[in-house]
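If it is no trouble, might I ask you for a protein's amino acid sequence along with its backbone structure tokens?
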Amino acid sequence: MARTHYEKHQGTFSDKAHMLARSLVYPSFFGGRPERYVIHRVGDGEENTRLDGERAIDLTVYSKKAERLRHPLGFTFQERFRRRRYEPYSDVTITEFNEASGKPSELYKIEATYFTYGYFSESKNTFGRVIIFDVQELKRLISKNTLRFTTNQNPKKQSFVCIPIAALEYFGLIKWDSNSL
């Protein structure tokens, strides 16, 4: 079966953005105290296939024992970082269908609680705007035909939906925004 070609340079770009998000984004989202949470990034092999490949989950953040609770609470995230040159589009893109494999993509399989989406400069190791939004509410609004989007296709023959960040703001889906700091 055909698969989408993995691009090593894109993986390196995403890894660098993820590491910066660990130190800047997640501490702010979870209250700024790293001792209060643990980040577990999806590894390779079977775990990657099961979580990222089948459920579109890139990492889990466990908040360490809240008062009167006996165990950490877990929150799952999907991440996407785009190059800063795409920031003027001010949209979120989510793959919808993979023509190369004939399979549904991220939009249909995503089970993450939240989606971390941002614009990253690899050469400067800095972010532009980064948002965290509610995935399940996004899917509910799409299924009700309430949230409008456009579609497009990339050179790898993956179709994707484009959702304006303004629409996420309008429906209250954004739970954290670097522009609000």
Notes: Residues 8-29 form the longest helix (22 residues). The chain has a mean pLDDT of 89. The first strand starts at residue 37 and ends at 41. The chain has five helices and ten strands.
